[in-house]
Design a protein that fits this description.
The complex is a heterodimer of chains A (82) and B (310).
Chain A lengths: L3 H16 L21 H13 L16 H12 L1
Chain B lengths: L2 E9 L4 E3 H8 L3 H8 L3 E3 L7 H16 L8 E5 L10 H9 L6 E4 L5 H16 L2 E8 L1 H4 L6 H4 L4 E9 L5 E10 L7 E3 L5 E3 L1 H22 L9 E4 L4 H11 L10 H4 L6 H11 L6 E8 L3 E8 L3
Parallel strand pairs in B: 4-5, 4-6, 11-12
Antiparallel strand pairs in B: 1-7, 1-8, 2-3, 6-7, 8-13, 9-10, 12-13
Helix pairs in contact in B: 1-2, 3-4, 8-9
Classes of the chains: A mainly alpha (82), B alpha+beta (310).
Amino acid sequence: MLPDSTRRQRLRTLVQKIAGKPAPDDEQESLFESGLLDSFALPDLVSAIETEFGVKVPDSDLNPRKFDSIERMDAYLADRAQ
Amino acid sequence: MTAHLHGFGAFLPETVVANAELADRLGCTAEWIEKVSGIRERRWAGTDTTVADMGVAAAEDCLRKVGIPANTLGMLIVASGSGARGFPGPAAEIAARLGMDSAPALDLPIASAGSLFGMALAMQMAETHGDVLVVGAEKMSSLIQTEPLDPNTAILFGDGAGAALVSGRTGRWRLLDAVLHTDGQYRGDLALDQTGQLRMNGLSVILQAARKIPASITEVLERQNISAQQISAFLLHQANFNLLTRVAKSLGVSPDKLFSNVQRYGNTSSASMLIAASEWFEGNPDPGPIVFSAFGAGFHWGAIVGDSRT
């Protein structure tokens, strides 16, 4: 299993790549409410997570709350790794 | 089962509401509305115009173009999520005003995907009921103008109606196959309460639609051994231009293959797919396989494939 810090850093890199701007320092900050990402970036973000971490996010997990912040994405991936 | 698609019809209200008019009310810019939706303007019906009024107009346009009198129809299916009453839905009124006095008229209150579900149902019913007219009619403007306006919905929706005739008789396109799906766990993410309050979780709708539309198209095409690249036109629910381009990317086809008029009419919910099909057909398109697809409240989604060459 990846250490949290490594996984979170990779998530930050993904967010930065999709947003074209630095990811927020606060890993609990909503990426969408803050305006960093819009609704059309969300499918891209999920696809990028699948590619980067080698996981398939099933349709039943396509809940925007799971991908709302770096912390929540990290928690989702940690659950998937167990 | 062999069903054929004979033609389309449409009706759009005359009043054009440009982004600038909405931007003033919402405190945003016209450019922002176009950037997030691809929409430049939409049509809104007058206060005296009903869903049934628009549905009758689209039905008559379709029947005129295919040369069928209404009293020979075996069935009417009306998709609408914005009818004026809880019951009866607009199907009964549209049937009566078309002069149908005993053929069944069925309502499908499936916002955005209703016309697709109606066409898939008509493919089955045509064998026993003959000519089946499918109508999608929506007056979304009546649902989004409650002050204060919700920018998530107010910028998107427009009014209008579309129609298609499906029959067991040989027609222009043979309808080869249909796939339909529903996942009710997200039913609260796009919903109209009985109070008239329209609620939309845009993040959830886009995330689900961006996956499920291409997945259902791929599913129906694989069953028919047809590749996406062989399709001459994709006629989709006109939800948002950005979503259409994303679907094209997922399918690996040029965005030009996805007919779009959302820029001029906005998202007319269940009416949009048939309005788009009607306009596309007016342009004398090349023959070949075509795909219909939609995604809407419920969530309901699916796809239909047809071919003019079989």
